[in-house]
Design brief:
Blueprint: H1 22-26, E1 31-39, H2 45-55, H3 61-73, H4 89-94, E2 101-106, E3 110-116, H5 124-131, E4 136-142, H6 149-160, E5 165-171, H7 180-194, E6 201-206, H8 230-236, E7 250-251, E8 254-256, E9 268-272, E10 283-287, E11 291-300, E12 303-305, E13 313-318, E14 329-332, E15 339-349, E16 360-365, E17 368-381, E18 388-389, E19 400-412, E20 424-428, E21 435-441
Parallel strand pairs: 1-3, 1-4, 4-5, 5-6
Antiparallel strand pairs: 2-3, 7-14, 8-9, 9-13, 10-11, 10-14, 11-12, 11-13, 15-19, 15-21, 16-17, 16-20, 17-18, 17-19, 20-21
């Protein structure tokens, strides 16, 4: 799945657990949280992100002045903070978010990447792209409207994508006189709905993005609410156990051979760690060949590491001169994925030409590319009602369904519920090179 550009060579998230050593935890004193926003049109996603950027002092003075000037020129009686994120001219003209907009900011406690995703049903594919790598999903609802069909749909998609943490932000509380009764009704309705989904961690926070209530600073108008502000929750949400630090998965992206005066005999294998903790001295197996070896060293630029873990990008050196190339995977000898050519997955279809049985596509899974045949479409999932339409013969754009694929070569997969990297893939139109689908492998 698509991911925003990030500093992949830095440890992302406090992922130290019983597997990681104290040195791991010490190196992660300022971690990264990726979160995706979702909500119906006019629920205030862009305004909320603008408020987070403003109140965390993450925008420049001239940016704020430009937004203030634009707001005044449009005749607004307030500063429209949504202008900080709706960067496309067409979005500004319509007052909506269309594409996924990535924003970066930091506080003394944590670094953040925000994926501001569209609310329209016709942009479901954009939301899937933005949320596919998120640690946390932030769903906004308008306190005046309560839960809508789109609110439920966004929660279902975040659940399908196995986003481990979810925040329901009940926005525009200032427009309902900061009513506890309104908040309680929405809270009860959503938590009841969430029991049908796979949402391990849920927080419901009443806010006003426009006025700043409970966003960064605690609201003086809602003394009945004793929970955290949104920023406090984002800074302190526990993500240590979200990544798999047990099952070693290292898809090889590049064979590193500098052939320079200083490194005549250097040979390493570069890539991003998808699971587990790697250490020098570990016995490993290279798949699909099955050749075994031992890790001689792990390099990060000009530094040799004592250990490495997801999602670090490193170069691994082996003690033996085994045949390793792009698309191979390094794993533990007694804990390796089983190669398979039969893929059972949930697919989000992303193009106007429908997905149909017998269709042939290219499939990209981690660093390995193959061809795939669509054997069957089991059902289309109605993300509003969770109904499974087993009579469907195709998947249209923005639809999600369960599909059976057969690949030309074995892929080294895990269930998406176990590992979101080795459990996902994209489908590509071979004629155009366009990504037409994103898949999540069933367990």
């Amino acid at each position: 799945m698509s991911t925003p550009t990030s500093h992949t060579n830095e440890p992302a998230g406090s992922h130290a657990n019983s597997v990681a050593t104290p040195s791991t935890a010490a190196s992660m004193n300022m971690d990264l949280l990726r979160f995706a926003t979702a909500g119906s049109v006019d629920d205030g996603k862009s305004t909320l992100i603008g408020r987070l950027l403003l109140d965390s002092k993450s925008i420049f003075e001239d940016q704020l002045e430009a937004v203030e000037a634009t707001s005044a020129s449009k005749g607004y009686d307030y500063t429209d903070l949504a202008l900080l994120t709706d960067g496309l001219r067409s979005e500004r003209e319509q007052g909506i978010t269309i594409d996924v907009a990535y924003r970066y900011f930091a506080t003394p406690n944590r670094k953040f990447i925000i994926a501001d995703t569209p609310g329209h049903v016709q942009y479901t594919r954009n939301m899937v792209t933005g949320a596919s790598t998120a640690d946390l999903g932030l769903v906004l609802v308008d306190a005046r409207q309560g839960l809508t069909e789109q609110s439920r749909r966004h929660a279902v998609i975040l659940s399908l994508l196995r986003v481990p943490h979810l925040v329901l932000a009940v926005n525009k509380m200032d427009l309902v006189d900061y009513s506890k009764e309104v908040y309680d009704k929405i809270h009860t309705e959503f938590t009841t709905f969430a029991t049908k989904l796979n949402i391990p961690d849920l927080e419901v926070i009443p806010i006003s993005a426009l006025a700043g209530d409970n966003v960064v600073n605690r609201s003086e108008h809602m003394d009945w609410y004793s929970g955290p502000t949104l920023m406090h929750h984002l800074e302190h949400v526990h993500v240590a156990s979200d990544r798999d630090l047990v099952d070693v998965r290292f898809p090889v992206q590049y064979v590193v051979r500098p052939k320079s005066e200083d490194h005549h005999d250097y040979r390493g294998y570069g890539g991003q760690i998808a699971g587990g903790v790697l250490k020098p001295g570990d016995e490993i197996v290279v798949l699909p060949s099955g050749m075994t070896s031992t890790i001689a060293g792990i390099d990060l630029f000009d530094t040799e590491l004592d250990e490495a873990f997801p999602p670090m990008s490193v170069t691994v050196r082996l003690t033996d001169d085994v045949d390793v190339s792009r698309g191979d995977m390094i794993a533990r000898i007694r804990n390796a994925p089983t190669p398979t050519q039969d893929i059972d997955a949930m697919i989000c279809w992303m193009t106007t030409t429908p997905l149909q049985p017998r269709q042939k596509l290219a499939i990209k899974h981690t660093t390995r590319t193959a061809r795939a045949l669509v054997k069957d479409i089991h059902y289309r999932l109605d993300v509003n009602t969770l109904h499974r339409d087993q009579d469907t013969k195709e998947l249209a754009i923005n639809e999600i369904g369960r599909v059976q694929l057969r690949t030309t070569i074995p892929l080294l997969t895990d269930p998406y519920s176990k590992n979101r990297t080795t459990g996902s893939f994209i489908l590509i139109d071979e004629a155009t090179g366009i990504t037409v689908g994103a898949g999540m492998i069933n367990g």
